[in-house]
């Protein structure tokens, strides 16, 4: 008795996600992800938007991030546990699901730890494409943890940077990053301080992991014309930038209701003006207006980006061997006969 | 390159859930589920309780139901699409996940379509154990759909009923139910009307599927001393009982904030007195007080019951072959080296 096709949900394991990325090439994946996000940001208004549903505990947070465009429904499960690395675990792990709104049936289950790193990088690069100064080709990467190489490769593939200037409080992290970016075509520069890293950079990306008010960038480190891509401040109490920088910047956000709680702008008054990035992407608002302006993308990660990433995976696995069918849904011949299905399965397994 | 044990999450497919039920026996499963729910209802106050997160569409609803006891976090994905049966699909499908709060790592992924039917039946029987009149042994089962046999078997295993009186607007559903309950030890009576079904019944269970204000039970059908187990009214606009019955009954609910929106009591004033079932189970409130009282369990299903069911499955599969390991979590040797893991996997797959 094999389950019918209605019972089966395509599942993309970590192994298969890696195979898919190698099959397509990471640059193509990052560009395709950015395209899917851009498409969804253009139709932002039709999405069902709710802030994430968070369950906080002393060690971290577990979140569910649902959204829907009316035809598909998606959600991501994601945790954030800063102390996990001490026991050899990931700070952030994630998986996601896409379902058909008309029937409620899941149509894709996938790992999202890798996929989130990829979509976060694609999102950053998409924002930089719209906000960074013309001709930007040098990025400072402050914080050389799990996100750093993905950020660098996305900025290379989508914005066209050719140089990354790396700094981390832990030189081992920087060495790992240098090693991983060898052969990428990027010119990689090790820096001994954040000040050194930002020298000559057109884009400054901050991505550090401490859950506390930190000042990774102080006011005097940020010159005119720079685009700041602030990734690490993404939950209450966790910020990376000095408030003075925020006050000098034009600030762009994903979803203000969420960013005011979780982003860098939690340090500002609740009515401090910000521009929603979807408005820039869809031509309803202006992005960078002068070459000397400081633009800041206060990134916290929003459910629609995960939705776009899930859509990308669903399309990308078609006709490939990079998914397996999971017997996740009970599918009796007669939908009202769930008990009969259970009974008949006993007869079969005893036979 | 096989994933490390940290990457793997035990997964219980529909097939394996059926095997597990047959391995243990359905009576044992129902009793164990009721025991797990009872345990969790006794420590109700320590749970993180939020109403379900619902995404409504013209065809139905998709919901996420999260909760946590501080050590474990669980959520259920569940849809409700009444028109699904027309295209041979289940009205309700579900899956669930349990995670370790300390690390955020998932520890169990399981089908929950079957498991929800089992836990809903166990919950009904647990409520009846505390509320039904002493010596109750006859149940009317109005609505003979997917839940009917599970409800009957749970009332048999946990409350000790010996007779079910079946009625459905569709005689085919009743025949299916009669067929499935043959050999269960229950005396099964086909009835031609709801009025006939409730004759002599100590417990009346209603479980019909229409998403509209319906009156499955009218006032004159409910005599004194009866316990009503109302399952079908479980979302806004969907009710089964005449308001007059509610006004004559002592009403018991799972979580008032949710039941006032979704349950039968959405027909009453928002301050109509109700008793929380956990208070009865933990001895803080009285259940049935007189033999002539009408008790009503206005059941909508709450996240804690799913949490109990997930705990049950996690314990029950230990040492059995009824789960498989899913490569759901990326697990690099160095948690900060997600990109390196991806790179090295290419080298391996090319080799």
TrEMBL record, chains A, B:
<dbReference type="InterPro" id="IPR003462">
    <property type="entry name" value="ODC_Mu_crystall"/>
</dbReference>
<dbReference type="InterPro" id="IPR023401">
    <property type="entry name" value="ODC_N"/>
</dbReference>
<dbReference type="GO" id="GO:0008473">
    <property type="term" value="F:ornithine cyclodeaminase activity"/>
</dbReference>
<dbReference type="Pfam" id="PF02423">
    <property type="entry name" value="OCD_Mu_crystall"/>
</dbReference>
<keyword id="KW-0456">Lyase</keyword>
<protein>
    <submittedName>
        <fullName>Ornithine cyclodeaminase</fullName>
        <ecNumber>4.3.1.12</ecNumber>
    </submittedName>
</protein>
<dbReference type="InterPro" id="IPR036291">
    <property type="entry name" value="NAD(P)-bd_dom_sf"/>
</dbReference>
């Amino acid at each position: 008795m094999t389950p019918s096709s209605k019972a089966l949900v395509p599942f993309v394991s970590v192994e298969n996600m890696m195979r898919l990325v190698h099959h397509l090439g990471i640059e193509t994946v990052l560009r395709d992800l950015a395209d899917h996000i851009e498409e969804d940001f253009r139709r932002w208004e039709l999405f069902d938007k709710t802030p994430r549903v968070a369950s906080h505990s002393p060690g971290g947070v577990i979140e569910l991030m649902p959204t829907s465009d009316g035809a598909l429904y998606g959600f991501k499960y994601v945790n954030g546990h800063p102390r996990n690395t001490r026991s050899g675990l990931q700070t952030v792990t994630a998986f996601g699901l896409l379902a058909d709104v008309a029937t409620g049936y899941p149509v894709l289950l996938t790992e999202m730890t890798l996929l989130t790193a990829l979509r976060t990088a694609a999102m950053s690069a998409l924002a930089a494409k719209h906000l960074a100064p013309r001709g930007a080709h040098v990025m400072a990467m402050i914080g050389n943890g799990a996100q750093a190489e993905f950020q660098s490769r996305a900025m290379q593939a989508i914005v066209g940077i050719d140089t990354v200037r790396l700094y981390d409080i832990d030189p081992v992290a920087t060495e790992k990053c240098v090693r991983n970016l060898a052969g990428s075509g990027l010119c990689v520069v090790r820096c001994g301080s954040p000040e050194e890293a930002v020298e000559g950079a057109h884009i400054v990306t901050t991505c550090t992991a401490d859950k506390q008010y930190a000042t990774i960038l102080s006011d005097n480190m940020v010159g005119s014309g720079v685009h700041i891509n602030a990734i690490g401040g993404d939950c209450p109490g966790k910020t990376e930038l000095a408030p003075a920088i925020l006050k000098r910047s034009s600030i762009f956000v994903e979803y203000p209701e969420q960013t005011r709680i979780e982003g860098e702008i939690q340090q500002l008054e609740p009515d401090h003006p910000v521009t929603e990035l979807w408005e820039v992407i869809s031509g309803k608002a202006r992005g960078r207006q002068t070459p000397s302006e400081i633009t800041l993308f206060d990134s916290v990660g929003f459910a629609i980006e995960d939705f776009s990433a899930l859509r990308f995976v669903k399309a990308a696995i078609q006709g490939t061997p990079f998914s397996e069918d999971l017997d996740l849904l009970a599918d009796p011949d007669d939908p009202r006969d769930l008990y009969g299905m259970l009974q008949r399965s006993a007869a079969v397994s005893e036979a």
